[in-house]
Every structure is written in C-alpha cells, then in structure tokens.
Specification:
Blueprint lengths: L1 H5 L2 H17 L5 H5 L11 H13 L3 E2 L8 E2 L1 H12 L13 H10 L6 H16 L2 E6 L7 E10 L2 E8 L4 E7 L6 H15 L4 H14 L4 H15 L10 E4 L11 H12 L1 H11 L8 E3 L12 E10 L2 E11 L4 H11 L2 H10 L1
Antiparallel strand pairs: 1-2, 3-7, 3-10, 4-5, 5-6, 8-9, 9-10
Helix pairs in contact: 2-4, 7-13, 8-10, 9-10
Length: 359
Amino acid sequence: MAEREKVTARQRAILTAIIESYIETGEPVGSGTIARLPHSDVTAMSSATVRNEMAELAEAGLLEQPHTSAGRIPTARAFRMYVEQLSGGANPRIDVARLPVSSRRQIDSSFIGLAGTQAVLERTSHVLATLSSGVGVAIAAAAEGDLLEHVHFSRLAPARVLAVVVTRSGMVHDRVLALDRDLTLSELETATNFLNEHFRGWNVEQVRTELAHMVERERSEYQRLLNAVQQLWLKTVPESEAPQQPVYVEGVANLIGANVDTEQLREMLAALEAKQRLVDLLNAYIDAHQESVRVIFDLEEQAPEMAGLVLIAAPARMGDENRGTIGVIGSKRMDYENTMNAVSYLSRVFDRIALHSKE
C-alpha cells in the first residue's frame, strides 16, 4: 500500500495504459503511443508530460528499458500494482459478474453431463487453457485427509484380485492385487462387507493402523477373517506409497510463443511434465482456505525454471469442502482481468454442477 501512495493518480493512469498496451502488443511502449491512445485517462496529456512521468516511474522501479529503444516495459512490481488496482478501488474489475456472458456459457456448457472430482478437474484444466491461452492446471485435494466411501474386491484369477476404493471426495482408485494366498469369493465378499461396515467414513490412511490393532487384540476364529482383510487392505493402500494428488495439465503448447529463450523453454516444459513439481508449486502458494483468486509473480522462488511466468489460482470448492486447486500459468502478458474472473468462476464449478443436478 505504501508503494501505491508514492505513485500519483496520473502516474497510475499512465502505468495502467502502458501495461495494457504491452499486454496487447508485446512491444516496448513509448510516450507518444500512450499520449495518442483514444478514450484513455491520459489522452489529454502531452507526449512530453507522459515522457516525464514515465521517467519517474522508471526511477521508482516500475518501468524498465530493455534496449536502446525509447520504449519502456513494465516490471514485475508494476504488474503487481496493476493487479492490486484491478482488485480494489471504488470500481474493482475482478468480479465474476464482469466475466463475459459468452465465457460463462462456454464454461457451463463444458461441464454438462460430468460428475466426479477427477472428470471435473480434468475438464477444468482444458477450459482454463482455452480461455486464457496459458497452461490450465488442476490438482485434486491431498488424499491424506480423504475419507473412505466404499471398497469392493473382485476375484480375477487364483491369488489375483481387483480392488476398487471410492472416497468421499469422488476419487476412484483401482489396483490389481497379487496375494500371498488365494481367497475364495466368499472370503472376498466377507472382507468387502467388513471394511464397508467398519470403516466407511474413516480417513483412508487410518484404516491400516486400526486393522493392525484389531489383529493384535483378537485371538479367535475371527483372526482368520482379520488376516484376510488386512492382507487385502495393505496391498490396496500400500504404506510405502504416498497419497497421490491427481494432476491435470492442458495447453502447454501455449507457452511456446512466450518471450523466453530455447533453454528456458525446455526447462519450463520439463517442469510442467514433472507433475509433482506442479503439486509442490500450487501447494506452496495457494491456501485451501483462501476466499479469492491469488496472483503470484515470483514463481522462481519455488521453481527457478518458472522465472518470467505468472500463476493465477484459487481453491476449487463445493460448499465449504475443498476439492483441489485450479489455476493458469502463463506469461506476464496475459489478460489478468478475464483470467482472474474465469478462475474465480470455475473455482465454484462443483457447486453449479450440484445445483444443476437437482433441477
């Protein structure tokens, strides 16, 4: 806020015009270009006045001169100030009501007939990539807090079983198990019923601990059942396997036009392919409890290969329940207003799907 107070209203108007011109053209902006802009807050200023104010903005670290050209480009600090200005003030532009009706219709139509967290998040990454011309990213909420809804075991062959686990968040995990001994259809059915009756609504990771305690306590015919249940569960949810957060990425090709050299582009693409890096990145910056869209300009602090890129992201919710995180990774020249409003609108897509399903 202190930085904004040092910049006059006229300088803010000039800076906004420079940023929006740079976003549109990708070229350094000169004072003459700004002074000639139609229907702008700076139209009445002379080129000399704009030039003097631009010199002040450069001295304040908000503009930089990339080469001998007379034009200037905004710095990361300038973009931050621009985003703060979009979000605040008497007439904030970051408001889902300002998202074009055509974009809202495109979003809503994209989710018709979809159900389940995975399907919705996968489609969300695609929609964000299309709307923003950046990289659409969606990750499911961390599985360690997920609750068991249903488990089912099916016999495939001697000592081979298909295990299907459904969680409260809508995630479906299936795995083919190679057992130490063969289990009959009756034993599998009994194990299925036991887990569903005793552990429905439990934290998935806590089931293992409680089963171990039950096996330790029991010394009866009940023991045989518990041993079978424990064997099935330990192979279905191995202790050595960290809970995975499904990651969906769309639009990586959109970065190819970004103003980066070949080596940096290669590193960016490699980071986007290493999906755990994206999980770490989004988890580092996006709080599941935050109420609004967040814009991050300093991605290189967590991921050096992301230098020069911007993250716009928000938690994806259904009511008060966090279903994951969605966002866009793109160049500083993205359309901040539309992208932020689209992310905000999509962050509540689960609520709209649930509402439509009741109609």
